[in-house]
Amino acid sequence: MQTPEFWWAVGIGSISLAAIAVVYIISIALNQRRFIAGQRRQLEIIQESERKYRNLFENSQVGIVRISVDDFKVHDCNATSLRMFGKETDTGIEMLLTSSLSEEDRRMFAAHLRKGEPVENFQRRVSVDSAKPLWVSFSFRMFPGTEFAEGILVDITEGKTAEEQLLASHQQLRNLSAHLQSVREEERVRIAREIHDELGQVLTVAKLYLSVLLDGVVSGKSTSGEAISKSLESITNIVDDSITLVKGIAYQLRPMILDELGLKEALEWECAEFQKRTGIACRMRSGDELELGREESAAVFRILQEALTNVARHAMASEVDVEVTTIGRMLSLHVRDNGRGIPTGDRQKPKSLGIVGMKERAIFLGGRLKVTSGTNGGAEVVLEVPIKGDR
Amino acid sequence: MEFPILGYVAVFGAIAPFFAALFRIRSLDTELRLLLFMFAVGVLNMALQIIIPYLGYYNLFLAHFYLPFEFLFFLWIFSRWFGTSPQFVLRLISVLFVLFWIVSHLTLERFVEPAQYTSLVSKILALGVTVFFLHRISADSEESILKDSRFWFLSGLLVYSSGGILFSALRNVIDKLPPEGIDFAFSAHWIISIVSNALYVIGFLCKPRNSGGQLELAR
Fold first, then answer.
1. Domain A257-386, second-level architecture
2. Most CB atoms within 10 A, among A17, A103, A166, A201?
3. Are A381 and A358 in contact (CB under 8 A)?
4. Of B143, B165, B188, the CB nearest to A11
5. Which neighbouring-strand residues pair with A123?
6. What angle do CA A237, A243, A245 make, to 5 degrees?
7. Sheet hosting strand A368-373, strand order edge to edge
């Protein structure tokens, strides 16, 4: 090889080797770029997933917590958990469950979780605010391979309150049913007593008169016309009394006036009877016509009767105002007295069966009944009933 | 023979990393500051190589000492960069190279002639070490290696070593040949040197390591 060619070969050889190195460097850089791009994509997917589940975690309507099983310290929790326990920030969340669950419960939960068993729907009353008791359903499940458990906390206070109210309502209905049975029995006893004591007595006297007359006729003894006339007059009086008595009993079973003259007159008559019976002044105001069906009329009449009975028994009132109005297709009955009023607690007592009975009647008619304190003392019963088509 | 422009550019290129490092000295970490020291020694070596002939002395002995200094310095910096696992191998290479350098200068090489065997061996070893570490940082880095100063220094050394192997291997032949046509070979050598030094410059101008992507990933 000639010298110049040798130098060319050395130069080109060196450049070629350096070029190979450069190509290697570029390939390394490109490969790494691809690798990084792949990693970034994976990272984005993970971040997106993290965002999605973080969003789900934060916006969940149930409380979600992550706790250590050893001491039940909370390591992470969502906003719903904080709200549930009356906290605005996550400072001091570690003791969230330690302070609200009893040690016995925590020990039992931990024992379940350590055995790999999930804790499902354990309902506990927790003391966050003594004025507002909180019922929480606890569910816990272990994170596999860790000492942490994930907990779902659901505020079931509303459901529990509704359940308690439902139980109270059932109890009230049972009491009402028993009360109605007792009232019916009392009514029967009273009617039986009236029939036995009054009607029976009157009829016995009538029978005596008739026996005396019959004895005279049978024995052939002459009885003066005056004596016969007196006996018959007495018998007529006794029969009249009997009719009045029977009418009274029949009225108590169902006031005929309601069917014969209508609701307005029946209510007026009841007010007048009430005033006569109790001496409590009873005024009634109403519109010209109160046209309701038979069932509705009877129910409104009974509600007024019950309201007036309550006034007579408990109110210690001297005056009662009864007002009946119709606005559109709605009938309103207001019974106001000037007595001592009804304390709020008494109105909601399960044993206030008179009020419960009135309310049940109102509900049966598709209306509602409120018992409130009057603005100037006393009490006010307000009944609102829709006027239906059938009369 | 008139000194070509490419030669001047190559000389400027050789001192460029030193000035780039000075420019960024405040943001340099410990290893880059150590490299700055090495390049400062390189600049001094070059200056002495230019000055000494004017004083009537041979300058070739300087290259015999600068060559192991530069090679061993790079290995030391690599061992600092890449932690404990390759440190043993790098130390072994360093010790064996020092022994070889001593033996070589006692038997084969003379200080009044250009270094041949130690130069060739150092370039081959540098080639292997840089290829290994380039592969390693490409696998380990969680952000682009283009932002990693280690990548640029390894690349610069790889280009310099691969482009210089032929010169080192043929040193005996080169010295015995007449210089007709040598311009092209020197131009190739200068181009390789310029490229290599340009890569070192980028290495110094890179932002410091571990200040971006890895933290981002950790978050």
1. 2-Layer Sandwich (3.30)
2. A17
3. yes
4. B188
5. A137
6. 105
7. A281-286, A319-327, A330-337, A379-386, A368-373
Burial (CB < 10 A; 0-12, 13-18, 19+), residue A19, is middle
Kindly report the three-state secondary structure assignment for every residue of chain B. Answer: CCCCHHHHHHHHHHHHHHHHHHHCHHHCCHHHHHHHHHHHHHHHHHHHHHHHHHCCCCCHHHHHHHHHHHHHHHHHHHHHHCCCCCHHHHHHHHHHHHHHHHHHHHHCCCCCCCCCHHHHHHHHHHHHHHHHHHHHHHHHCCCCHHHCHHHHHHHHHHHHHHHHHHHHHCHHHHHHCCCCCHHHHHHHHHHHHHHHHHHHHHHHHCCCCCCCHHHHHHC
- Most confident listed range (A53-67, B105-119, B147-161): B147-161
Question: CB-CB: which of B158, B162, B185 is closest to A10?
Answer: B185
CATH of domain A61-155: 3.30.450.20
Cβ neighbors of A106 (< 8 A, separation 6 or more) are A72, A97, A98
Q: Which residues from B are below 8 Å from A14, CB to CB?
A: 163-167, 185, 188-189, 192
Q: What residues of chain B lie within 8 A of the CB of A35, using their CB?
A: 138
Residue A96: pLDDT over 90:
no
Structure tokens at B28: 């340099």
Judged by a CB distance cut-off of 8 A, whether residue B52 touches chain A is: no
* Confidence label for A353 from pLDDT (cuts 50, 70 and 90): confident
Domain boundaries, chain A: 1-59, 61-155, 173-251, 257-386
CB contacts of B163 in chain A (<8 Å) are 14-15, 17-18, 21
Q: Which region holds residue A316: left if phi is over 0, alpha if psi is between -120 and 50, else beta?
A: left
- Residues of chain B with Cβ-Cβ distance to A8 below 8 Å are 181, 184-185
* Secondary structure of residue A311 in the 3-state scheme: helix
Nearest residue of A to residue B148, measured between CA atoms = A29
DSSP string, A232-244: HHHHHHHHHHHHH
How crowded is residue A181: how many other Cβ atoms within 10 Å of its Cβ? Answer: 10
How buried is A356 (Cβ within 10 angstroms: 0-12 exposed, 13-18 middle, 19+ buried)?
buried
- Residues paired with A382 in a beta bridge: A334, A370
ipTM for the complex shown: 0.86
Instruction: Name which of B165, B181, B184 is nearest A17 (Cβ-Cβ).
Output: B165
Neighbours of A136 (CB within 10 A): 23
pLDDT of A231 > 60? The answer is: yes
Q: Which helix (H) or strand (E) holds A143?
A: none
Confirm if A5 and B180 have CB atoms less than 8 A apart: no
Q: What is the pLDDT of residue B65?
A: 93
Q: Which of A5, A18, A24 sits opposite B192 (nearest CB)?
A: A18
Two structure tokens written together for A287: 């519109």
Task: Compare all CA atoms of chain A with the CA of B138 and give the residue at the minimum distance.
Answer: A32
